[in-house]
Amino acid sequence: MTHRTATTTRRAAAATLTAAALTFATAAVAKAPAPIIKAQKNAEVAKTIVVSAKGLTLYRLSPETTKKVLCDATCTPYWPPLTVKSAKVKPVAGPGVKGKLTVFKSGGQFRVALRGYPLYTFIGDSKAGVTSGNNAQSFGGTWHVVTAK
Question: Fewer beta carbons below 10 Å: N end or C end of the chain?
């Protein structure tokens, strides 16, 4: 093999390895799950709160926990729970959201909880940034916006 042929072969191999590495890195980035919840400053409550991927305010029902669910089939038409397709889905929180996200099954759905509290949106919130469900009393408790910290 001549010097020129060996150099060409090494360059071709290096180019192939570089292309393979870039393809792998791109695939890893493409498969990274998008945040299901994120932190967002909210002027209505003057706090950084947790919102859905679509920007809708997320609430929790006090004194509800994942072990004591109060929001059942009569509640969920008004307070839709944040859900995922299966228990195998690992929910992801965006930057600024503190606490562990978990999935639990209730009412035949795989619901998402943050810090042990199930998460809900409110049908009375017409758009992102609205917090009209905050401090509402219904379904055995009081609804609160979920703070990011």
Answer: N
For residue 12, the model assigns a pLDDT of 52
Enter the DSSP assignment of 75.
T
Residue with tokens 């870039």: 22
DSSP letters, 45-60, are TTEEEEEETT--B-EE
The CA-to-CA distance between both ends of the chain, in Å, stands at 65
- CB of 146 within 8 A of CB of 47? no
The C-alpha atoms of residue 67 and residue 31 are separated, in whole angstroms, by: 32
Assessment of whether the complete model's pTM goes beyond 0.90:
no
For the chain (149 residues), the mean pLDDT of every run of 10, in chain order, is 56 49 44 84 97 97 97 97 94 96 96 98 96 98 97
Contact 37, 51 (CB under 8 A): yes
